[in-house]
Amino acid sequence: MPANLPPDARKKWAEVEATRNPRERIQRMGEFLSLVPKHKGTLKLRGQVKKQMAVLRREIEEKKRKKAGRSGPKLFLEKEGAAQIALVGLTGVGKSSLLAAVTNAKVEVSANPYTTREPVPGILVYEDIQFQIIEAPALMEGAADGRAWGLQTLGVARNSDGLILMVDLSQDAVGQLSVVLGELEKTRILVSRPKGRVEIEKKYMGVGLRIILVGRLVDCGMRDVEELLKSYRMSDAIVKISGEASLNDVEDAVFESTTYKPCVVVANKVDLPNAEDNLQSLRKYVRERMPIIAASCEKRIGLEWLGETLFRTLGIIRVYTKEPNQREHSKKPFTLKKGATVQDLAKSIHSDFRERFDFAKVWSKRLVFSPQKVGSTFVLEDGDTVEIHVK
Ligand SMILES: Nc1nc2c(ncn2[C@@H]2O[C@H](COP(=O)(O)OP(=O)(O)OP(=O)(O)O)[C@@H](O)[C@H]2O)c(=O)[nH]1
Ligand SMILES: [Mg+2]
Q1: 304 CA → ligand 2 middle, Å
Q2: Closest ligand (CA of 303)
Q3: Cα Rg of the chain (Å, integer)
Q4: Which of 47, 55, 319, 354 is most buried by a 10 A CB count?
Q5: CA 289, 264, 333 angle in degrees (round to 5)?
Q6: pLDDT by residue (tens digit) across 217-275?
């Protein structure tokens, strides 16, 4: 069920959206909350907005501290490489040990709990691409309710392209994973692909509302979607709905509250006693939901699978480009999402390319003849080489 907010609350949310200044945004969010009726149907929504307010407050604090010359914990780290992966788990499971083993990062490994107190990035090289892995300070029960640095860690997770969920096999791994999943769920970070997906891309005034439906609305029609968005004063946006989506999913997208992250589980300390039993229980608990890598950071077991598993789970492809007058393609690939087209590639090379696009030539093992002349809607695959011709 959508939260069914009164019109003045919806109008207020439009004001929140239009406000960039963090302090004013918090103020408007507070005003918004006072207009939201307090019943069960709005519980999740209220929680989500309060969390956003808490994150903004931290951002303000951080800025103040920076001005005063003291450095505090960073909220977000600049993305590097093909994807940013947040490494999360309870304390002592071996997050720093993993970072030290597979990336270039210098981190402190210690048997003392809560050693890592702020996000630490490192680069993992997989074939010809790189993943940025960020060790986030340990999660604990209550993190989503603001305990310790919990919201900061969940913020890092939300901002990432995917997650490594780490557990310690010498302990109750299922229990650890369920705490982590519980905290993620409370902040509406999904770890399994939702049936439907709603993306709202806000546009400038005058563009109008364009709804692209590549799937099915389960409990409403296009009209309802339009009305809902208009009630939030969203009149200029491109809305993409794929799979099976409900009106509630559309409203969630307005608040950008639900997000899906592909996950890989790293079950560490496989060298310790009881690890086999705990691994078996973990496999039963996780089933097909996400891949599990049984590893030992200390004994260097299983770590060689991490790059490939991340690559597969994130669903990315590498595409090489070639200049029309050159023989060799680029050494460094572009990384795109599976299903990306020649046009997506063109866009990521240069914003101009989209309009100036004429045709492309594609070299690929899967084609009977290479190169093949293709149009902008041609779907690319991992390993393809593309030569783009512009008008
Ligand atoms: N036996 C064994 N011990 C490990 C392994 N990996 C890490 N450890 C130990 O586990 C302890 C915690 O490791 P860290 O890497 O600091 O754990 P963390 O998850 O970063 O912990 P915090 O940052 O403190 O939350 C250290 O004493 C490590 O030596 C492993 O594969 N096997
Ligand atoms: Mg650590």
Answers
A1: 21
A2: 1
A3: 23
A4: 319
A5: 120
A6: 999 999 999 988 888 888 888 899 999 999 988 988 888 777 899 999 999 999 999 99
